[in-house]
Design brief:
three-stranded antiparallel β-sheet, D-Maltodextrin-Binding Protein, domain 2, about 45% helix, 15 helices, alpha/beta, 2 domains, six-stranded mixed β-sheet
Length: about 350
């Protein structure tokens, strides 16, 4: 018995030394460092808002308490940022990418300009599993889904590029529901789409409700902006009277397209990742720090004050979802590609 006890004590002591050494190495590495979070969208949008809130709290959960800065690299629906993280950022654990997780689909579609293999990113997690809605200005005249269906001309919506939810959602709604939509792409973030809508250049756009309710709060509260349709597994508690796209899809095939093209992507939309090849101990340290930030009472209080939701996924959970896209039947992938990349 004494021999077994001695072995157990020795094993625990060895484990403690290993963990302590790992923490010490992490602290030694990150102390005095500055971690960059590269956001794939312009300042002022929903992605940027979340990233800056996370940056204010993440450092205290990393050994060595490094500084955290946010940089914006808008363009191509965050594809530029994803390519930057994958190909040019050093895999040393101090550069984090924040881009749209649904870009995984663009790899499946063999989209020109995709310079990464999503299966090789080191995923840190997402702060919230997103919901989707379409918000249009009162001035556009489209204040209800009925009016939208009855529109005599296609309604102009703003988007960024294929792969961005503000481009993909309108395309899918047009294909599945038959909504009259004219998609105007090239915007570098939802903040630019909002400004264009307020200027009367477009009617509005479709992106995450978590972002819309925060960054367009004034328009919603004044009645100058209306949520006309949502695209979610069921109606959100926030939007009990807003029609859900699944309710208006006339066939099961249409509903499957919505699930595959929108709902399954929304969970990992607001993703954070490290470059491939980042040392595993730093990946685990950063994953732990990310989840610790999500549970931080001060972070939670700030998010509540800003009307931002927290409903995180771990890096391992994001990895599982990202890999699942590569298991879709070829016929379903082809159908989605035909809708999301017409003419290609």
């Amino acid at each position: 018995m004494n021999k077994r006890f001695a072995c157990l004590v020795g094993l625990l002591a060895s484990l403690f030394v290993t963990v302590a050494a790992s923490a010490a190495l992490g602290q030694q590495f990150y102390k005095g460092k500055t971690i960059r979070i590269i956001v794939g969208f312009a300042a002022g949008g929903g992605f940027d808002t979340y990233a800056r809130a996370i940056a204010r709290h993440l450092g205290k959960h990393i050994p060595g308490s490094p500084a955290i800065v946010v940089e914006n690299m808008g363009g191509a629906g965050s594809l530029l940022a994803a390519n930057e993280i994958y190909n040019r950022a050093k895999p040393d654990g101090v550069t984090v990418g924040n881009f749209i997780g649904s870009l995984v689909q663009q790899q499946l579609f063999e989209t020109k300009g995709v310079e990464f293999d999503a299966r090789k990113f080191e995923w840190l997690g997402v702060p919230v599993q997103d919901s989707t809605a379409c918000a249009l200005t009162k001035a556009s005249g489209i204040t209800s889904l009925e009016r939208w269906f009855a529109a005599k001309e296609p309604v102009k919506l703003g988007g960024e590029a294929p792969g961005a939810n503000d481009s993909d959602v309108p395309r899918l709604l047009k294909a599945v529901l038959g909504l009259p939509i004219h998609l105007v792409e090239g915007y570098k973030g939802t903040s630019q789409i909002r400004l264009a809508a307020e200027a009367g250049e477009i009617a509005g756009g479709c992106w995450t409700w978590e972002s819309i309710k925060t960054t367009w709060r004034q328009g919603l509260e004044s009645g100058n902006v209306n949520v006309v349709i949502q695209v979610n597994p069921q109606r959100l508690p926030d939007l009990p009277n807003v029609p859900n796209a699944l309710e208006h899809a006339k066939t099961e095939e249409g509903r499957e397209i919505i699930r595959a093209g929108i709902l399954n992507s929304a969970a990992i939309l607001r993703v954070y990742a490290l470059p491939p090849g980042t040392p595993k101990d730093r990946v685990e340290l950063m994953r732990d720090a990310f989840l610790a930030t999500m549970k931080d009472p001060e972070f939670a209080a700030e998010m509540k004050k800003a009307n931002l939701s927290i409903n995180p996924l771990s890096g391992a959970e994001v990895e599982k979802i990202a890999h699942s896209f590569f298991k879709l039947p070829p016929a379903e992938v082809a159908k989605l590609k035909a809708i999301l990349q017409p003419g290609k």
